[in-house]
Amino acid sequence: DKTGTLTQNRMTVVQGYIGMRRFRVTNAGDPSSTVNLEGVSSDAQSLLMLGLALNSSSEKELLPGNVGAESDLLSRWTWRTDKGNKTDQAIPDFVDRVLISVPGSCNDKELPHQKLRMTNRSRGFAIFPFTSERKFMTAVVAGADGVVMQHVKGGSDRVLGMCNRYLSSEGREEPLTEEVTEMITAQIRSIAGDANRTIGVAYGRIGTDGAVPEEEPFVWLALLGIQDPLRPEVVDAVRMCQGAGVTVRMCTGDNLDTAVAISRQCGIYNRLRGDLALTGKDFRNLVYDTYGDEANMEKLWPVLDRMMVMARSQPLDKQLLVLMLMLRGEVVAVTGDGVN
């Protein structure tokens, strides 16, 4: 399992696109530094900040005794350990770093993302949590004008597939043509190629009858690249295992490009060696198509032997991988954080 095992599980937003406009975060590793989204339209920024603030289950609390620099509000807060996860934490952190310098966005008792949550939840609010099957999270909230909005955050490829419009650099909603879809897909692959987890953000309106208009699903709003640095000891540890005759494989919920980039950094994946990387769905379908037929199983084994990376994997896919390796006669050990 990758997150928290191969990596430090310390996530932060480092780059992305908002309304098709590129941004990069300077001093990404310093959570107390501010972020300037220069050139991003105010409407796009407002929509994004609201959607991100609502779409996170992580919560912060003041440090005992209000410890921290008087001039630095962000340093006086810490994450509650019983709420959310590290990816979730990167999202409200990003909101706070963007809005902390905006007058009226916060006070001594509330960070910007907390104030946004409280203000909007008071008008009516529902949340549909992220699951490994859905790959996205949804917040439904009534706006100040009475319009009910859906804000979606999740795996970039999953969220993009739910959209038929996008927000342009000028802040206008435009049709999501095949050409634009290819452009966004290229953006996703580029950011994933930097070993970033890619998060898609979208929004949509709900009709007065409570239904989502079929012809207007969602509007693609933003792509965020979240980075989780490798643990410094990982490369040597992988090399030592391989030197002892142990085959190291990586499973992750990240998309294929991100998974390949990270596994290459670890020394787990090497395309020149003939290694393979598959999604959990592709691996699952391959097993289901071949299992029980001896002739077909002989086609599965060479693929299994070369598969070093499983991306977009669910808990069942990991279990299936272990089962197939054991049927192959391998002795299997699994490491992870215990969640999946």
Word description of this protein:
This is Calcium motive P-type ATPase TBCA2. It comes from Trypanosoma brucei. It is found in: Membrane. InterPro entries: ATPase_P-typ_cyto_dom_N, ATPase_P-typ_P_site, HAD-like_sf, HAD_sf. GO terms for molecular function: nucleotide binding; P-type calcium transporter activity. The structure is a single chain. The strands form 3 sheets. Strands 1, 2, 5, 6, 7, 8, 9, 10 and 11 form a 9-stranded mixed beta sheet that branches. The longest helix is centred in the middle third of the chain and has 15 residues, at 178-192. Helix 1 (42-54) crosses helix 3. The protein starts with 11 loop residues before the first strand and ends in a 13-residue tail after the last helix. The protein has helices at 42-54, 86-99, 112-121, 156-160, 178-192, 234-243, 256-266, 280-290, 294-306, 315-327; strands at residues 12-18, 21-24, 60-62, 77-79, 125-128, 136-142, 148-155, 163-167, 173-175, 196-206, 218-227, 250-251, 276-279, 307-311. The protein contains 10 helices and 14 strands. It folds into 2 domains: 12-227, Calcium-transporting ATPase, cytoplasmic domain N; 234-327, HAD superfamily/HAD-like (Rossmann fold, 3-Layer(aba) Sandwich). The model is unreliable at 67-71 (pLDDT under 50). A hairpin with a 7-residue loop joins strand 5 (125-128) and strand 6. The chain has 340 residues and is an alpha+beta fold.
